[in-house]
Amino acid sequence: MTKMDRTNERILQVLSANGRISNIELAEKVGLSPSACLRRVTALEREGVIAGYRAVLNPAARGVGFTAYVSVGLSEHTKAAQEAFERAIARSPEVRECHNITGDREYLLRVEAADLAAYKRFHTDVLGTLPQVSAITSYVVMGSPKDERA
Questions:
Q1: Are 26 and 11 in contact (CB under 8 A)?
Q2: 6-46 in CATH: which number?
Q3: Top-level CATH class of 60-140?
Q4: What per-residue confidence (pLDDT) applies to 65?
Q5: How much is the pTM?
Q6: Rounded to whole angstroms, how far apart are CA atoms 123 and 82?
Q7: Domain limits, CATH 3.30.70.920, in the chain
Q8: What is the percentage of the chain residues whose pLDDT exceeds 70?
């Protein structure tokens, strides 16, 4: 297991901000030689600390102007109901994240749509038709002063 020292934490911080940074630039930023930096990054990848690299998408450039977090309560608390709900959500491109949570609701979704009308269609035609769903609460995102998802 790779030791999570300050240098490894700094490597992860820099890569989280810019996954396309060159090894030479990364080494300079964290104060290592390029070969030592590459060994650490390779070890972090091999051990699954770094699970992958991905592009950060600009929602507005993709035609997404509306984001909401949606809590969903299920009418039945069975494995079958959860699995059916999760299958339906997996087929819904508007749902960018789905989390099974604790509390008075079972799921928290992050939903992206072109606009309010598109979200209403998803709310009515997708969530509103699922037999497992008993409660839906929408929280409209008005701004995101901090968002570190990558």
A1: yes
A2: 1.10.10.10
A3: alpha beta
A4: 96
A5: 0.83
A6: 18
A7: 60-140
A8: 99
